[in-house]
Design brief:
The chain is α+β, with helices and mostly antiparallel strands and about 270 residues long. It has ten helices and seven strands.
Length: about 270
C-alpha cells in the first residue's frame, strides 16, 4: 500500500524522464497512462475502462473540473469508485466539486443523499432509513425524552413553504432514532460546515432538499450502531485528497482555506 502511494505521488508531481507523464497532460490522458496503478486501487467490480468513463462523464457534466489538479480529481473519483457510487449523475449518489483552494483549483468529493441511503442499506442491521421535508400546512409533531415520538401527516395539496426536515432510521431489532432541523437551522448549518455552500457547482445550490435530507440523516445516525466500514465511508465525505491508496479512507484530507469560488463573467 505504501509503495502504491509513493509511486502515484511521484508520478503525479514530477515529469517522467521518458516524457510519458507530464503536469500538462489532460486528466483523461493521465488516467490512460496511469491505468496499471489505478487498476491496483480500484475495487474488483470496477474496471479501469469504467473508471475512465466515469471520469469523462464527470468532466463533461462539470467542465470546470478540467481546471482541477490532476491528483485531487483522480483521488475524488477514486473515493467514489471505492464506495461504489456514481459521481455527477442524475442519480445524485455523489459529487465531484471544483474548489479554489488557496488559489489552486482542486476537486472535493461529496456523498449525495441517495448515496448516503445506499451506504446505509448495506448494513444488514438497518431495516429502514428515510428523510423527509415538512411544509407549513403539513401536520407534524414530535417529542423527545424516554418515549420519543414523531408524527408527520403531509397536506394533500397547497403544502406551503418548507418548514423543517427530519431523518430517521429503524433497526431490525426495533431500535430507532431521528433528528429534526428547522429550515433556518439547516441554512445556518450548511453555511458553517459545508465548504461547497457558496460554489455554483455545489449540490446545495442545485439539490438543496437532497443535501438537507442527507444532513439530517447523518445527524440521526449518530444514535445508530454503525459498523467501522460505514464510518470509514463517512470520513471521505466533503474531503479533498491528493494521494491514491488501496483504501482511500486512510488518506488524509487537505485543508480548505479559500472556499469562495468566483465564476468568470461570460
Amino acid at each position: 500500500m505504501t509503495e502504491l502511494k509513493e509511486e502515484l505521488a511521484k508520478k503525479a508531481s514530477n515529469t517522467r524522464k521518458d516524457g510519458k507523464l507530464t503536469k500538462s497532460m489532460s486528466i483523461a490522458d493521465l488516467i490512460k497512462a496511469m491505468e496499471p496503478e489505478i487498476k491496483r486501487a480500484l475495487p474488483a467490480v470496477i474496471t479501469p475502462e469504467r473508471f475512465t468513463r466515469m471520469a469523462l462523464s464527470a468532466l463533461n457534466t462539470t467542465p470546470k473540473l478540467q481546471e482541477c489538479t490532476q491528483m485531487s480529481f483522480l483521488a475524488a473519483l477514486m473515493n467514489a469508485a471505492q464506495l461504489g457510487l456514481e459521481p455527477n449523475t442524475p442519480l445524485g449518489q455523489a459529487y465531484l466539486i471544483p474548489y479554489n483552494n488557496k488559489g489552486v483549483m482542486e476537486c472535493q468529493f461529496q456523498i449525495g443523499y441517495k448515496g448516503m441511503i445506499e451506504l446505509c442499506y448495506r448494513n444488514p442491521e438497518m431495516q429502514m432509513i428515510s428523510a423527509q421535508t415538512v411544509y407549513e400546512n403539513d401536520e407534524f409533531e414530535y417529542e423527545l425524552g424516554l418515549n420519543p415520538k414523531l408524527v408527520h401527516r403531509p397536506a394533500l395539496k397547497d403544502r406551503g413553504n418548507v418548514r423543517l426536515f427530519y431523518g430517521l432510521f429503524k433497526l431490525v431489532n426495533g431500535g430507532f432514532g431521528f433528528e429534526v432541523m428547522s429550515k433556518e437551522d439547516m441554512d445556518t448549518y450548511a453555511k458553517e460546515y459545508s465548504k461547497a455552500f457558496d460554489s455554483s457547482y455545489s449540490p446545495w445550490k442545485n439539490n438543496y432538499t437532497g443535501m438537507a435530507q442527507k444532513t439530517v440523516i447523518k445527524k440521526a445516525l449518530k444514535y445508530a450502531p454503525l459498523k467501522a466500514e460505514f464510518r470509514k465511508a463517512l470520513s471521505s465525505d466533503e474531503t479533498i485528497k491528493t494521494e491514491f491508496c488501496e483504501d482511500m479512507s486512510e488518506v488524509q484530507s487537505e485543508n480548505i482555506f479559500d472556499t469562495e469560488y468566483q465564476e468568470e463573467a461570460a
